[in-house]
Amino acid sequence: QEHDSYNHKLRALQENQQKQNTLASKLQNKILEQKRRILELEHAIAGKDHELEDAREELNSTAETLEDQLKHAESKLKESERSLQNEVTMIQDKYEEESSKVLDLSQQAGKLRSQLDQEKAENSRLQADIRTLTAD
Question: What is the pTM assigned to this prediction?
Answer without folding.
Answer: 0.49
